[in-house]
Write a structure and sequence with these properties.
With about 260 residues, this protein is of the alpha+beta class. The protein has six helices and eleven strands. It has two domains: about 130 residues, N-terminal domain of MutM-like DNA repair proteins, CATH 3.20.190.10; about 120 residues, Helicase, Ruva Protein, domain 3. Bound molecules: zinc ion (ZN). Zinc ion binds next to loops.
């Protein structure tokens, strides 16, 4: 699913409509699910001009003269500007584009169209989203903020993988990025968050930054080193150890039984 790196490239694409005036907006019942009604989107967006485009975690934000428009991309959402996709290739969901999977979008006075393509129907439009519900952004996370992400009130806390995926604590890390940073840091995803030593926290913080930089350069969250071993019976590409998998934090997690401790 689109994680922080993908949504950041959607942001770069959407940046091109800054200054443009919206003439029409449309949304089907799925994209409009968080609004009062599908018609609410077209009512709210008409006549607004886009002042700036930004991102918080996996949420894309279009600041207009009056309201903030937001897009959540769910499991398979892709942003298109006049048919040009915000990411290369199509790794998410069915590997093709179909007109019936265009769920909604914006049309501008200059004739351009920004649309959301989403086969799985989990993408959502929002107006004036509550940003207070999101933790600090993973791409600009300081060490001090990272230590707060790992702060646990009682006992061992949740598994470290679940904590990394908790968007209220840290915004932007999804399943594949979470597995890759733990793989690189040599940490078992099942470890209780509070059991990490100071050295391990440092290792994980470095790994988080390195994972985001490296995979950003490679072109997406699905291009991590551990990806070749995401199936039952796989061996670790690093040391040949047996890969294990379990559901952690609600997501299918893979890790190496040898070097992740
Ligand atoms: Zn290994």
């Amino acid at each position: 699913m689109p994680e922080i790196l993908e949504v950041d490239s959607y942001r770069a694409l959407a940046q091109r409509v800054v200054g443009a005036t919206i003439t029409r907006g449309w949304a089907d019942v799925y994209l409009a699910k968080k609004l009062s009604a599908p018609a609410a989107w077209s009512r709210v967006v008409r006549g607004r001009s886009v002042k700036s485009v930004s991102r918080r975690g996996k949420l894309l934000l279009l600041e207009t003269d009056g309201v903030t428009l937001a897009v959540r991309f769910g499991m398979t959402g892709v942003l298109l500007l006049d048919g040009e996709a915000g990411i290369e290739g199509l790794f998410y969901g069915p590997h093709e584009y179909r007109a019936q999977w265009l769920r909604g979008g914006l049309e501008f006075a200059d004739g351009r169209r920004l649309v959301v393509h989403d086969p799985r129907r989990l993408a959502r439009f929002e107006v004036d989203p509550d940003l207070g519900a999101l933790g600090p952004d993973a791409l600009t996370l300081t060490r001090r903020e990272f230590d707060r992400v790992l702060t646990v009130e009682r006992g061992e806390g949740p598994p470290i993988k679940a904590r990394l995926l908790d968007q209220a604590r840290l915004a932007g890390v999804g399943n594949l990025l979470g597995d890759e940073m733990l793989f690189r840091a040599g940490l078992d995803p099942r470890r209780g968050t509070a059991t990490l030593t100071g050295d391990e926290r440092t290792r994980l913080y470095r790994s988080l930054n390195q994972t985001l930089r490296t995979l950003g350069r490679r072109g997406g969250s699905h291009l991590g080193d551990h990806m070749v071993a995401r199936f039952a019976g796989a061996t670790c590409p690093k040391d040949g150890g047996a890969m294990r998998s379990a559901t952690i934090g609600g997501r299918t997690t893979f890790w190496c039984s040898r070097h992740q401790k």
